[in-house]
Each structure stands twice: as structure tokens, then as C-alpha cells.
Amino acid sequence: MTCQICGVILPTGAMFCGECGSSRTATPLTRKRPDPRPNDTTIIAPLPPRSTVVSVPVDTDVAPAKGRPPMRPETVQSGATSVPGYLPVGFVLQFSTGETVSVRGSGLIGRRPMPQPGEAFDVLLPIADVGMSVSKTHLEFGQHEGEFWVNDRFSGNGTVLRRPNEAPVRCEPGRRYRVLRRSRVEMADQHFTVN
């Protein structure tokens, strides 16, 4: 008997071919296996354009409530973490890579930060990290009532927050931590200071 796959003569009573390892009953048609991952490519549709919301009509004067600053007709991007009608507070992030970035609203930081489907951020900040200690999407930041916060996005090496005159805090993934000005946020081998 001859192996139908490689053509080697099989000894009497052989169950498998000693040359290619095929079963003696194998044929070229039975050896052809279906692709185990026929749909492993996912096509992601582009996100719809982010709409803008104007909180106060431009031609209307609004008297400020007592104790509150006057409302200005500012355009606020949807998905921002601020109160509609008010621009988010500005913060300056000074990175260990030598870059200084002024941010408002929300964003992601990492080697190649990318939002999950359905998420919207004001800014994506890529970090140059040759040692690749920083995750692709390492942490999220935003604002709540004028205060800056960070949230570790289940990074590989974690995030440590060092507030002025306080003990360092290892950030629990998925939890927001308030960051005071002059605090240092450590992302593995890289860090940034919030001013």
C-alpha cells in the first residue's frame, strides 16, 4: 500500500505513514482542514462626528447666579467631563520625556493610546517609551468640578501617584484618583507632573 499524501510505500499493517505521519486512510481531500478562524478580521466603522452643544444662545444675556461666575456662550465638545457652558480648567502636564502639554477636559495617555468603542476623549497623548514599560493605553485622565483625576486602565506595570507631602499611592485599576497640582504620576519608567 502507498501513502496517498507523500507517495511512500507503507509496510504491511501500518496505521500511519512513517515519512509524513498521515493516517494510511488519509487522502488529499481529508487532509484539507477548514480555516479555524474564518472571521478573525473585524472591520470597525468610523465613529460619527462629535456634535457640539451650545449651552446658551449667543444673542441672549444670562445673569449669573449669585456666587457663580457668569456663563459664557462657549462651545463644549460632547464627551467632555465638564459642566455644559463652562470650559474645563487648564492643566499643564510636564513629562519625563521633556514634553510639556497643556490639557483641558479628558484624555488617554500611553505608547499608542486608543479609546474603546463608544468612548470619546478630548485628547490622546502618546508617550515615547523606548523600553516599552508604559502600556499602549496606560491611563485615563479627566476633570471633575475643576479637579484633575487619573484612572489606571489596567496597565501592565501600574500607576503610582505621589501627591505633595503625602505617601505614594499605587492606583487601583479602574478607580479615579484626585491629583493635586505639583503631584507626580508615575507610569512604570516614565512620569509626568501636573501643574
Automatic annotation (TrEMBL):
PROSITE patterns: FHA_DOMAIN. Transmembrane segments: none annotated. This is FHA domain-containing protein. Signal peptide: none annotated. SUPFAM superfamilies: SMAD/FHA domain (SSF49879). InterPro entries: FHA_dom (IPR000253), SMAD_FHA_dom_sf (IPR008984).
